[in-house]
Amino acid sequence: VQYVKKNTRAFGISFDLDAFDPEVAPGVGSPEPNGLTLKAVKSAFKTLAHEKAFVGIEFAEFNPERDIKNKTAQLIKNLILSLIRSEEL
Question: Which of 2, 10, 30, 87 gives 55 a disulfide partner, CB atoms 3.0 to 4.6 angstroms apart?
Answer without folding.
Answer: 10
